[in-house]
Design goal:
- There is one protein chain.
- The chain is of the alpha/beta class.
- The chain has 2 domains: 144 residues, P-loop containing nucleotide triphosphate hydrolases (Rossmann fold, 3-Layer(aba) Sandwich), CATH 3.40.50.300; 87 residues, no CATH class.
- Helices cover 53% and strands 16% of the residues.
- The protein is built from 11 helices and 6 strands.
- It is elongated, with a radius of gyration of 20 Å.
- The structure holds zinc ion.
- Zinc ion binds next to helix 3.
- It comes from Candidatus Giovannonibacteria bacterium RIFCSPHIGHO2_12_FULL_43_15.
- This is DNA polymerase III subunit delta.
- It holds the Pfam family DNA_pol3_delta2.
Length: 235
């Protein structure tokens, strides 16, 4: 679901009725995540600012997993830690990464499927495209309002001439992937029936290229050049 601009109000309403324990934040700049942690840590699940957890500056029940990818060893560690009884209030596992390996996803799924009380998972990714459908179905997905991104997408140009300047490294290439996704989302709403087939061809190419990007089988620049060519045929 799309997170409203007033995130605090949004969470207040959400946690009135939600028992969700596993979350996916897509394209979050940290703001949603920080507030979500406050809500989950709160004894009353409403960031009451009065309970012990809300009052304390440092929340001890949180574990961070950060890095380019989440590997099976990390997922097993999370699975084990989730099964241990907590010493101090709720437990929150916060995973911030670009890519979660397939076997790690399977272990995460198993862990989330057998939830322990007061145990929460927050996964933060640039895009949900690399997650398996079963794992996705178990996550409450929060996305920021896309208004800003759509504006960016209309200006976005993917062509061969500017690829070498926009994709110097993996991080920049990831940014390009994000822009393409925003562009695809805005495009799909206004697509002409005649161009639907070539558009779906491009979307297929896109996901194939993205897979190879995460597998690191080809340099990012080369992959994006291929995409630019594919997009050229569509346009
Ligand atoms: Zn509280």
């Amino acid at each position: 679901m799309i997170v409203a601009r007033d995130i605090d109000k949004f969470f207040k309403n959400f946690f009135r009725s939600s028992m969700a324990q596993a979350f996916l934040l897509v394209g979050d700049d940290g703001e949603t995540e920080n507030l979500l942690i406050r809500y989950l840590a709160c004894d009353n699940k409403n960031f009451c600012k009065k309970c012990l957890q809300c009052q304390s500056e440092s929340f001890l029940g949180i574990r961070f997993y950060e890095g380019e990818s989440l590997k099976i060893e990390d997922a097993r560690e999370i699975q084990f830690a989730a099964s241990q009884s907590a010493l101090y209030g709720p437990k929150i596992f916060r995973i911030k990464t670009v890519y979660i390996a397939a076997d790690a996803q399977a272990t995460l799924l198993k862990t989330i499927e057998e939830p322990y009380p007061e145990t929460y998972f927050i996964i933060s990714l640039v895009s949900e495209a690399s997650l398996s459908a079963p794992l996705l179905s178990r996550l409450t997905i929060f996305k920021k309002s896309r208004r800003d991104e759509v504006v960016g997408a209309s200006k976005f140009k993917l062509n061969l001439e500017n690829i070498s300047s926009i994709a110097q490294n993996r991080e920049e290439a990831e940014e390009v992937f994000r822009e393409i996704e925003a562009w695809m989302e805005s495009r799909i709403r206004v697509i002409h029936p005649e161009s639907a087939i070539s558009f779906s061809g491009f979307v297929e190419d896109y996901f194939e290229i993205k897979k190879r990007f995460f597998e690191k089988t080809y340099p990012p620049k080369m992959l994006l050049e291929h995409l630019a060519v594919s997009k050229y045929y569509f346009e």
